[in-house]
Amino acid sequence: MKTFVTIPLLVLVILGAIGTAYFATKWYTRPKVEESKARIADSAVESVQLDVKNINREIDRNSGIEHALMKDKEQLVISYNQLKDSSRQEIDSLTKLLGIRNRQLSHYVGLAFTSTREDEPMTETDTTYNFKDNWLSVDIKKPANGVPALLNSKYNASPNLAWYWESNRFIGLRSPLFGRELIGNFWLSDPNATISGVKYLRIEPPEKRFGLAVMAVGEYYHDDVLFGGGVSVDIGRLRLQGNYLRDFSSGKWYPAFRGGFKLIDIN
Questions:
Q1: pTM higher than 0.90, yes or no?
Q2: Are the C-beta atoms of residues 76 and 204 closer than 8 Å to each other?
Q3: Could you read off the pLDDT tens digit of each residue along the chain, which spans 267 residues?
């Protein structure tokens, strides 16, 4: 009698697997924009240049330091070929200098800044003029005995880079549904410095859309403990999994099938 019950259940499992695989194939092959490209700004799908165009500048009220903010997605590409010709040449020179191949490059950041001081008083000695603050020191030797005036200077200001997710009120979930964005924040420790330009690039290959895994599987279900092996197939966000499990209470082996669809990525 148990055999007659098991056979229909096995048939149902097989039919369910075939049906799920069929609809999964239909979903996977439907006309759509690639997920990897959907995460990139429309302009970035065509071409991107290293120089960041959209920079939001903010001045810290307490320190007077200028911050330059940018959105990571506007400088995100999925391949080196999406760069404009001029930017591609610049990256070629960079990778040649580093002794690496273009496909090895993951991130690139370049920061240009200007530090200005106007009408700052200098101290005078018999032989020099001097200026010094927390970041810049200048010594000018007065001309003497046919030797022209000589300049010695030292500048010490540290550039800072920070990346953070734009604040979101929805309990920290990360998903395209909630529109969170990765923000880059650039600044120097010198309040006299202004950021005159930012170069930035991040290369992120498309997500792997197909994967196959062999697993050891354990389950606890309705007071039964089951253990065995399984094979899972990942198709984009869809996962199909077939298992063959031993029920320790009855000592018998059973086939099992399940499917799942990933809705939200949680950091």
A1: no
A2: yes
A3: 444 445 555 555 555 556 565 555 555 555 443 444 444 444 444 578 889 999 999 999 999 999 999 999 888 888 888 888 889 999 999 999 999 998 888 899 999 999 999 999 999 999 999 999 999 999 999 999 889 999 999 999 899 999 998 765 555 555 444 557 889 999 999 999 999 999 999 988 776 777 888 888 888 877 788 888 888 888 888 888 988 888 888 888 888 888 888 887 665
Is residue 87 left, alpha or beta, with left meaning phi > 0 and alpha meaning psi from -120 to 50?
alpha
Q: What sign has the CA pseudo-torsion 94, 98, 103, 104?
A: negative
128-165 in b/e form (b: 16+ CB < 10 A) is: beeeeeebbebbbeeeeeeeeeeeeeeeebeeeeeeee
Tokens of 193: 């410095």
The secondary structure of residue 173, as a DSSP letter, is: E
Q: Which two tokens stand for residue 30?
A: 């439907």
- For the chain, give every domain's residue range: 2-27+208-266, 35-203
Q: Which fold has domain 2-27+208-266?
A: Pantoate--beta-alanine Ligase; Chain: A,domain 2 (3.30.1300)
